[in-house]
Design brief:
This protein is α+β, with helices and mostly antiparallel strands and 196 residues long. It is built from 5 helices and 8 strands. Helix 1 crosses helix 2.
Amino acid sequence: MNAPVLLQAGRALAVERAERLSEADLADLAEATDAAIIEGGGFGWVEPQGRAALERHFRGVLLVPERELFVARLDGHPVGSALLVRPPRNNEAQAFAATLTHAYIAPYARGFGLARLLVHKVEERAAAVGHRVINLDVRETQATAIALFESLGYLHWGSHPYYARVKGQTVAGRFYMKTLEPGRGRSTGALIDGAV
């Protein structure tokens, strides 16, 4: 799927919802992911995984119906990604909410606004397929990600003191949510509260 390209500081920026990835894209995405892991950001792994493992991971993600992969590109090359995770079909009670997870931009591609664009694209897609709430969680050590999410209107609603183990240390986590407005029709508040 081709995404519109924005120019920022002479660089081409794009975010697309990926339905397939070329071998070159998989290689670039694996490199970007390992770079983000090494830097300590946003993927869940704490040690680099290597190209083969990450390529298998991304191929697997593309097969799961409840997961949508978004790829951030700088000058045409994948430099980050995020997942939109929808609840399984047997969870009707929480079908209105989705989760944003594994969002990151490689350290060498930061500073162009790609992270903000990536989150906006995930939010747009979530709203377009009927979700009215988006949830996410992040390690408290990821100050840049926390600042980004809070600047985009995510509400911190709770913390978990034993959220993750990173290099032998226990790290707390922060939980966030944001309501999404549909493109037209009743407001999210009305939909969630059951108002007609």
